[in-house]
Description:
Elements: H1 3-28, H2 32-37, H3 44-72, H4 75-92, H5 99-113, H6 116-127, H7 134-186, H8 201-209, H9 214-243, H10 247-274, H11 281-300, H12 304-319, H13 324-332, H14 338-353, H15 355-367, H16 370-399, E1 403-406, E2 421-424, H17 427-434, H18 440-444
Antiparallel strand pairs: 1-2
Helix pairs in contact: 1-3, 1-6, 1-7, 1-9, 3-5, 3-8, 3-14, 3-15, 4-5, 4-6, 4-7, 6-14, 7-10, 8-14, 9-10, 9-14, 9-16, 10-12, 11-12, 11-16, 15-16
Amino acid sequence: MAARWQGVIALLLLIIISYVDRVNISVMILNPEFAAHFQLNENRMLQGMLMTCFLLGYGFSALLLTPVIESRWHYRQGLLSSIAIWALVCAISPLLGSLLGMLIARIVLGVAEGPLFSLKTRFINDNFAADEIGKPNALTALGVSLGLAVGFPLVTWLMAHVGWIGSFYALALLNLLLGGGLIWRFLPAPQVTSQRAKPGFSQTFALAWRTPLLGWILLVEIATLSYLWGSSAWLPAWLRDEHHFSLQATGLLAAVPFLLSLGSKFLGGVLLDKMRPEQAPLLFIIGGLLTAGSVLALMLSQQPAMLALFMLAANVFWGLQGAAIPAVVQHHAPREAVGSAYGIINGIGNICAAFIPLLMGVVMKSVGSVSSGFFRSGGIAADHAVRRRRTAAAYASRSSSKRVYTLNKLQDKTASRFEQRLRWPRKDEAQGWADLLPTPMQLEV
């Protein structure tokens, strides 16, 4: 196997490990001993804060730490340093005696994990041609679903056999030995082809912010991450408290939706390699609309079979978009700042999505039902997905065009809100993209 593909496999496995770390709290809060030790009890708001603190640390790190690593180190050095901190945080977590200490530990863990996806994106950009990036992006994106699918039952099994304290120590060893070993052995360092100096932090950060249509891509990322963290943070509690599954069954059932998204994520990568770069936003339109429809159907369903069907469908359609966001960034960001550009998108996206678990916890505390917060998240995801439809269409028209066309020619009433110039190849093609935008009647609905 070529060295670059060995690196992709190593990154896939590292992402799986990192997502086990991220969701372990979602399972541990169901353990009475863990909840009592950190004075969580049945306070859903405090439980949601554990995930929110992690995501805030993660978001600011992806935004601000990635340019430092990209300008001073390479991705191999950055990842090995991050893994060492992951392992240390897991090892000291059981020794913390207060909720404040655990919240700080979650922030530090988020800071350490923040640059992961940005450095992964930089590695793929450096080692694959523009028409080859779909499959490696899709393969590494599988790590999100696999990490969630493996993480829920694995943490459940560890708690049943070694307790919640032993679970933290086991995860620390997993991070250090397996995660660190894979990167050390299989991720090649960048080849030095010239002696040109790297741009400094300020220049790298400024280049990243000049990525074309950064804001459009960011809106899509916020919607995607809001759905991911809203569903994964509270799915185990919803299954156990609302549907009365055992802890072991909860861990297994929580993994099923993310397992089903594996095929759709890889399909998205295959489609990306067959599409022109300017066509990539089609995956946002198709995947976003189908996800929104599934979530809305989930909110309106009462039968258990229909609830399961639409929950699984939402994850499948959500997975279809997994490889599209990094691919679009790789196509348009300056080469020297690809990682930092994705860090801006991933960082701000996670900062915005960080408040979804906390918001759900507040709703649960006030209403007294896990379902109330769970479906509140579904409503937010559906709203974002509908907005994503016009965002992706406008993005595609801008990135693929050769001539200037103004938004006030479109039938969408949002034109007055987004006064900016777009490039357009042909008038008839422009009308084709305009037809994808919602009419005022659809927006009012």
